[in-house]
Amino acid sequence: MNGIVLILFGLAAFIIAYKFYGSFLSKHLDVDNKNLTPSHTMSDGVDYCPAKSPVLLGHHFASIAGAGPIVGPVIAAGFGWVPVYLWIVFGSIFLGGVHDYTTIIASIRHQGKSIGFIIQQYVGLSGKKLFLLFAWATLILVIAVFTIIVAETFTNIPSSGTSSALFMLLAILFGLTIYRLKVKLWIATIVGVILLFLSIPAGNLFPMQLDKTTWQLFLFAYIFIASVTPVWILLQPRDYLNSFFLYALIAGGLIGVFFFSPTINIPAYTSFSLDKVGYLFPALFVTVACGAISGFHSLVGSGTTAKQLDKETDGKIVGYGGMLIEGLVAVLSLTAVASMMNKEFIDILVNKGPVAAFSLGVARFLHAIPVINLSIEIGQTFTALAVSAFALTSLDTATRLARFMFQEYFEIEEEGKENNNSILKNRFVATAITVAFGAAFTFSGQTMSIWPVFGSANQLLAAIALLALTAWVIKIKKNSLFVMIPMLFMFSVTLTALGMLIYQNLILSNYVLAVISTLLFLLSIILGIKTYIVLGRKEIIA
Predict the structure, then answer these.
(1) How many Å separate Cα 371 from the centre of its chain?
(2) Are 451 and 145 in contact (CB under 8 A)?
(3) Residue 414 in contact with residue 391, Cβ under 8 Å?
(4) What is the pLDDT of residues 333-378, one digit of tens each?
(5) CB atoms within 10 A of CB 98
(6) Residues 6 or more apart from 466 whose CB is under 8 A from it?
(7) Which tens digits make up the pLDDT trace of 241-251?
(8) What is the pTM of this model?
(9) Which residues pair with 263 in a beta bridge?
(10) Domain map of the chain by residue range?
(11) Contacts with 106 (C-beta within 8 Å, 6 or more apart), sequence order
């Protein structure tokens, strides 16, 4: 099997799906530009700010991508390339794309509020509060873990820290240029992208030599500022410009595949069980998260993206299109490592990690392009920097989303009831508390030990989001099978995975992980029962 076949089939499948299934979803959800979006009706210059579709796609894609579609497929490739490939392609089209697109549309129909608010509307206030607590706690874990990962990257590769600092400054200038000086987007983009790539050699010339703790403190200060400032100043333009990093990576990698013409060397299928990963079901569907479906996407879609959507039809390219692009990244990631000899792949994966394996594979593709002819070393550096840049993007987006979750938890829903929690709804206070908890986890030294549970927690978010979306679709009198079937599948995956984690951690006497897994398991059951009772069996089946 040649890797070109994997790329072409995946690309064709995604294009056809976007054209036909994406249009079906738009029609089914009554997407119409006559409906004003919250970015216009609730514009506040801070969170609710209309953005042009290319800018918003850049923000959304940069936020949801991170290292997820790269790391997941590489780890899961141990099962063989066939099951991973099939899950990426069909998962992106029928689960992830549906999950992301429907989340955005549902959110803009509910004032740009989160999935938690939608759960409140159709399941009840207690369901919303359970979801928001779980979502906020999960995001705290994301903040802590990504802070550790980014700080370690900046410490080990000082040039990447300088480049990232230059990204931030460039993003502020880009935002001011677009929104205050009213420079045309295409002109600002050309200049911005040139400066973006020039920041890479600038980082090599002036590397910032700081220790890990200093970088962590710097990152906490940065994410606090990024969370409370208007999205158009930093978050939106930074993600837009950073998206060109990944676009370049995707384009270079895909073009390189055709010149390199890689042979798929790893087995099509190995076994149903892998050491340290688990059984193919449910491990495959938890490990390959962002490359097929991810609950974190629902928080991004209903947290920042829906508040910036200029018109409803933009939701298709941003939500459904963004997920399919991420699926393409996952296909590229799988092809890159599958082109290695199996022994080489396993050695790199075990000793250097999935990002190193991906970087080497893509670097070989880039090296094969005659016009570019990058050395393997430069190609690896560029790829690793692109991955770390998106990890930082996910970090600041997660902080803003956690702030939204915290604020929304303390909103008073009963009309006419006096608000006694206004201080907790303040964005500065909410952000400070969120960052403080993230810092506490980071410096406790225990964060990474909880990481095995995060994969299941993330996919549980997807299942719960699909549950809320199913309830909404039913209430608006539409056929709900397109969201219900993915929801039932994701619950089966999550509950099985959590059940195994509970058993395994009890056997190992790791009671902290066992308790966390049990709480997540019970949360999903409670929300499922509440939704079933509220909607009624006949209405759900109808």
Answers:
(1) 33
(2) yes
(3) no
(4) 999 999 998 889 888 888 877 877 888 899 999 999 998 778 887 7
(5) 25
(6) 99, 483, 484, 486, 487, 490
(7) 877 887 888 89
(8) 0.85
(9) 2
(10) 1-20+51-94+132-412+420-444, 446-542
(11) 115, 118, 302, 468, 469, 472
